[in-house]
């Protein structure tokens, strides 16, 4: 591997256009807003729109897609076609399916078992952002959000664990607490007392704390275990600087944009918008739109929480 260190240029005509990682996160966020909750079927529809029509793309086209995601979306389209024929619904109408009973009949888990790519983790942030006021729901839905396109247990648990970290951040927990080897134990109730896969458990216990980084075996690869470990290493070693952490993630090489996207979800929540490098913010493509969508996610999430807490309270008092 080359020893060249990457950095971001700062030119007036340079626009930081986002890749598939952010496009899929925007699809997920827009689904949470439009459906006012977690509807995996609608998430898949929006991923399909991105794949076929460039929905939520920074270029108007899907110019990059992981193999596992592509396979799952092709399987989703095949299932849609069969479903449309069975229930006499046009394919155009099927994309806007809202009938609760029919939605329950559609199998949204479109991945083969054993698929453990990082594509499930790179888009995660909208889920914990929407549901963070109810940590158990946030962690559970984080896991499900990954499994609809990546079927391995490690994906489910990596997304649950990372979702829990983002939730804890939004609740104001310190960096030391987030990166503690006891994080899972102290938040076990959030996970429904379900154990993590051993590979994810090792990461939660601090396997990413390697001062040598790349020289110590940290790799920003497409395998979700490597990707999670790499992102947490970047967060652990960033010296409380988002810029340093993002550049460290990118400089691991391999699937650089995804490692940085995963890092950015947790680090962005922790450092907050006001502490992001202004020289980067000035060049982010569709920055105002992304800010608006983020605020809308939290707004709809607060409404969801109020409605569900109110509903649960009424049931308890009957």
UniProtKB/TrEMBL annotation:
GO molecular function: metal ion binding
Cofactor: Mg(2+)
Pfam families the UniProt entry points to: ADP_ribosyl_GH
Coiled-coil boundaries: none
Record keywords: Magnesium, Metal-binding
Organism classification: Eukaryota, Metazoa, Spiralia, Gnathifera, Rotifera
Cofactor details (free text): Binds 2 magnesium ions per subunit.
Full protein name: ADP-ribosylglycohydrolase
Binding site for Mg(2+): 19-21, 255, 257-258
InterPro entries hit by this protein: ADP-ribosylglycohydrolase, Ribosyl_crysJ1, Ribosyl_crysJ1_sf
């Amino acid at each position: 591997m080359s020893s060249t260190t990457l950095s971001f240029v700062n030119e007036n005509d340079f626009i930081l256009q986002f890749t598939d990682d952010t496009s899929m996160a925007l699809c997920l966020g827009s689904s949470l807003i439009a459906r006012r909750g977690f509807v995996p079927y609608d998430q898949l529809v929006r991923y399909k729109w991105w794949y076929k029509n460039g929905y939520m793309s920074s270029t108007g086209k899907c110019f990059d897609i992981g193999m596992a995601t592509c396979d799952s979306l092709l399987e989703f389209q095949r299932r849609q076609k069969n479903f449309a024929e069975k229930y006499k619904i046009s394919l155009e109408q099927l994309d806007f399916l809202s009938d609760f009973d029919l939605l329950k009949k559609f199998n949204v888990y479109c991945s083969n078992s054993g698929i453990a790519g990082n594509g499930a983790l790179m888009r995660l942030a909208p889920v914990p952002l929407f549901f963070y006021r109810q940590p158990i729901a946030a962690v559970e839905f984080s896991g499900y959000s990954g499994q609809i396109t990546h079927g391995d247990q490690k994906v489910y648990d990596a997304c649950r664990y990372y979702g829990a970290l983002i939730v804890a951040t939004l609740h104001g927990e310190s960096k030391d607490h987030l990166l503690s080897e006891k994080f899972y134990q102290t938040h076990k109730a959030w996970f429904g007392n379900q154990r993590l896969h051993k590979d994810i458990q090792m990461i939660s216990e601090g396997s990413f704390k390697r001062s040598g980084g790349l020289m110590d075996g940290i790799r920003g690869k497409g395998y979700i275990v490597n990707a999670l470990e790499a992102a947490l290493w970047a967060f652990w070693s960033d010296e409380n600087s988002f810029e340093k952490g993002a550049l460290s993630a990118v400089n691991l090489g391999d699937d650089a944009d995804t490692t940085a996207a995963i890092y950015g979800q947790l680090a962005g929540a922790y450092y907050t918008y006001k502490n992001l490098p202004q020289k980067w913010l000035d060049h982010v493509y569709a920055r105002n739109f992304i800010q608006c969508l983020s605020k809308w996610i939290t707004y709809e999430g607060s409404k969801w929480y109020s409605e569900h807490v109110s509903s649960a309270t009424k049931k308890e008092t009957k």
